[in-house]
Amino acid sequence: MWRRRLGALLLRSPPSSSSTAASSLQHRRHHLLPTQEPLALNRLARLFTSQAGSDGDGGHSQKPFIAFVLGGPGSGKGTQCTKIASDFGFAHLSAGDLLRHEIASGSEKGELILDIIKQGRIVPSEITVELIRKAMEMSNANKVLIDGFPRCEENRVAFERIVGTEPDIVIFFDCPEDEMVKRLLGRNQGRVDDNIETIKKRLKVFESLNIPVVDYYSSRGKVHKINATGTADEIFEAVRRIFSSLRF
Ligand SMILES: Nc1ncnc2c1ncn2[C@@H]1O[C@H](COP(=O)(O)OP(=O)(O)OP(=O)(O)O)[C@@H](O)[C@H]1O
Ligand SMILES: O=c1ccn([C@@H]2O[C@H](COP(=O)(O)O)[C@@H](O)[C@H]2O)c(=O)[nH]1
Ligand SMILES: [Mg+2]
């Protein structure tokens, strides 16, 4: 799908006098992402088409292997992603961390994001997808964990439309609510959303909006559900079995 969408646009020939293949991609993308820079677009297109890398720029030549990592707040997504990244060579992109980084930058968007995170709600898709897209492009990795995204069906559709691909697999950490609450209240990292009022809201949002995304990918045979109780090392044994069986 990725290749079909980007590759067809890039490799269309011959280019018309008013529009090269690359510029027609930029033109089309411009409608989707008005703030996108042409240089970044060219690079993204090169990275993710089958012909990429043949121009000797050192970029990888295939679309990256993408794993969405989902689970309730405090289910251990970040903890397990760190281990997967270290043992299996994945880039770890946490949507929450990208949003917190935007807050720390002091941008106007950051103020909006902070307000939403404090309320345990979901940040508009175009903001999050753009941060993820840029991070993927910068990492230039061929194996990527996207931690804590998509949070809702609208996020999922926006990712597939803007980035132009589906995940290869979805890891779902299944954890009882009382255990998640206990972990979050003990996390002690100064997060503005680790308080009982916001945690209750995050749990509701998780049930009503995030679970439907897991159900969607289950229906497409992509979900690996993992029991997220026990120690982090015990859980990682189950994770390891899944990643060891993958071909990427
Ligand atoms: N298996 C485990 N048993 C006990 N504590 C754990 C376990 N895994 C992670 N933790 C701890 O629970 C807290 C939440 O874990 P983590 O940050 O990995 O969850 P998360 O799913 O990324 O949460 P969030 O959605 O809020 O980002 C952390 O303090 C972490 O050290
Ligand atoms: O895709 C996303 C990811 C996160 N958010 C918001 O950030 C907080 C914290 O996310 P964590 O993954 O738990 O670090 C989450 O509650 C949302 O408010 C988001 O909107 N979209
Ligand atoms: Mg996390």
Automatic annotation (TrEMBL):
Protein known as: UMP-CMP kinase
Cofactor names: Mg(2+)
Keywords of this entry: ATP-binding, Cytoplasm, Kinase, Nucleotide-binding, Nucleus, Pyrimidine biosynthesis, Transferase
InterPro entries in alphabetical order: Adenylat/UMP-CMP_kin, Adenylat_kinase_CS, P-loop_NTPase, UMP_CMP_kinase
Catalytic reactions of this protein: CMP + ATP = CDP + ADP; dCMP + ATP = dCDP + ADP; UMP + ATP = UDP + ADP
GO biological process entries: nucleoside monophosphate metabolic process; pyrimidine nucleotide biosynthetic process
Residues the entry annotates as binding ATP: G74, S75, G76, K77, G78, T79, R187, G230
GO cellular component, one term: nucleus
Organism: Urochloa decumbens
Residues bound to a ribonucleoside 5'-phosphate: R100, R121, I122, V123, G148, F149, P150, R151, R191, R202
Cofactor: binding comment: Binds 1 Mg(2+) ion per monomer.
Positions annotated to bind CMP: N155
Keyword Ribonucleoprotein among record annotations: no
Role this protein plays: Catalyzes the phosphorylation of pyrimidine nucleoside monophosphates at the expense of ATP. Plays an important role in de novo pyrimidine nucleotide biosynthesis. Has preference for UMP and CMP as phosphate acceptors.
Listed CDD domains: ADK (cd01428)
Family label: Belongs to the adenylate kinase family. UMP-CMP kinase subfamily.
Enzyme kind, highest EC tier: transferase
Localization in the cell: Cytoplasm; Nucleus
Highest taxon listed in the record's lineage: Eukaryota
SUPFAM superfamilies with a match to the protein in the record: P-loop containing nucleoside triphosphate hydrolases
One function term, GO molecular function aspect: kinase activity
Domain notes: Consists of three domains, a large central CORE domain and two small peripheral domains, NMPbind and LID, which undergo movements during catalysis. The LID domain closes over the site of phosphoryl transfer upon ATP binding. Assembling and dissambling the active center during each catalytic cycle provides an effective means to prevent ATP hydrolysis.
EC number in record: 2.7.4.14
A Pfam family of this chain: ADK
